[in-house]
Amino acid sequence: MSRYVRRFGFGQALARDLPGQGSGIVHSPSDLENDREMASMSIGYAVSVTPLQMAAAVSAVANGGELVEPRLVRAVIRNGIRAETPVRTIRRAISLETASELTRIMERVVEEGTARSAQIPGYRVAGKTGTAEKLVNGHYSNTAHNASFVGFVPSREPALTILVMIDTPRGRSNTGGGVAAPVFQRIAEEALRHLAIPPTVNPLPPLLVEAPTPPRVMPTASRQRTPAVLASFADSMPQDGLMPDLRGMSMRQAIEALSPFRVRAHLEGDGFVTRQEPVPGTAVERSSTARLWMERRLVPVPEAQP
């Protein structure tokens, strides 16, 4: 058990760009005096972990078993050039098979266990509740608790790991499932909407069309677009249910352009739209799905036809 505690990063400082982070408290096996202390440790007592450590450990389950170093800065943009902060894998915590089994177990916690209030319509959620008595004056309190819930969504194609911890809840419930899971549900639902991540449970079938091979565009240094270029998007918007040309738009602009058509957006990558299906000018149906490929560069915006 001690070996897996270490594999998941507990008792260690994980993020190099957070010099003030805590390491938590994890006792070595030699410090455990009897089987009762081992049993307490196995259910979360006699152990102290930070929220960052817990989020990193659960993310290792979500991504297939690898413990990734947490980071605050995703990229630095200087003079129009974007430099990504490299992703650093600390170690493999568990096998892919074990991660898959844990994901199924954590899905059942949300579907039929203590975290039913974390369910999000249209998405499968995997997570775990936590309810711990706080240590007060050297004794565990019967009234003061830490209530928590940590989960990732969509569980089979994870985009977000979210941890909610409430210190000493004072309402009718003091459990993780009663007070922390509903907060997770509200945060995750808004975040999925903001990121335009389509539903994964019974999603609407996409509208399939034959797309021509897009022209090859060489990467260029990004620069700010002028208001005139942004205005051209609105001027060239096709009418009468025809797919607009979204190339060159940001994620937010593309979603706003699709909203009058009641078309869902399925995005791959980030930055600006470089390719889309259906192609511009194609007839689209309401409640269909458009796939957008995005990259961190601008593409030439086609001039409006006379």
Question: If you had to describe this structure to a student in words, what would you say it looks like?
Answer:
It is a single chain. The protein is an alpha+beta fold. It folds into two domains: 2-194, Beta-lactamase (3-Layer(aba) Sandwich); 205-306, Trypsin Inhibitor V, Chain A. It has seven helices and ten strands. The protein has helices spanning 2-7, 35-42, 51-62, 96-112, 176-194, 227-235, 251-258; strands at 66-68, 75-78, 81-84, 89-92, 126-136, 139-153, 160-167, 264-269, 272-277, 289-295. The strands form four sheets. A three-stranded antiparallel β-sheet has the order 5-6-7. A three-stranded mixed β-sheet has the order 8-10-9, covered by helices on one side. A hairpin with a 2-residue loop joins strand 2 and strand 3 (81-84). The protein is elongated. The N and C termini lie far apart (71 Å). The model is unreliable at 220-239 (pLDDT under 50).
Summed up:
This protein is α+β, with helices and mostly antiparallel strands. It has 7 helices and 10 strands.
